[in-house]
Amino acid sequence: QVQLVESGGGLVQPGGSLRLSCAASEIIFSNYRMGWYRQAPGKQRDFVAASTGVGSTNYADSVKGRFTISRDNAKNTVYLQMNSLKPEDTAVYYCNAFSPGQHYWGQGTQVTVSS
């Protein structure tokens, strides 16, 4: 059974940093585009960043220059380094694995940016 397990969320002050991790199991990791999405209370789930199996990346405009997605195909893990965090980054962050015809989500990890 495919599992995506996120970790690394928490409470951080504005301007601080966090690093999220997502460990995947039971998939051929390098075949999947791995992404991060987030959902704030009362809002839709939005795209944050994604990385293909060959390492190309793309980002939402709201996080460009502050967030960096990376992946380690040997460890079946994708990361999201978040710097210069703002209160508006507060949300549940979800890991996503996508390959044509297959789509999986993690359970989410809470990120709260507050003083």
What does this structure look like?
The protein is built from no helices and 11 strands. It has 115 residues and is mainly beta. Strands 2, 4, 5, 6, 9, 10 and 11 form a 7-stranded mixed β-sheet that branches. A 4-stranded antiparallel β-sheet has the order 1-3-8-7, with no helix packed on it. Strand 9 (91-99) and strand 10 form a beta hairpin.
Structural class: mainly beta
Q: What's the pLDDT, averaged over the residues?
A: 95
How many E-type strands? 11
Shape: globular
Helix content range of the residues, please?
under 10%
User: pLDDT below 50 for ≥5 consecutive residues: which ranges?
Assistant: none
The biggest beta sheet reads:
7 strands, mixed
Compute the number of helices.
Answer: 0
Termini Cα gap: 40 Å
How much strand content do the residues show? over 45%
Order of helix and strand elements from N to C terminus: EEEEEEEEEEE
**How many whole angstroms does the radius of gyration measure?**
13 Å
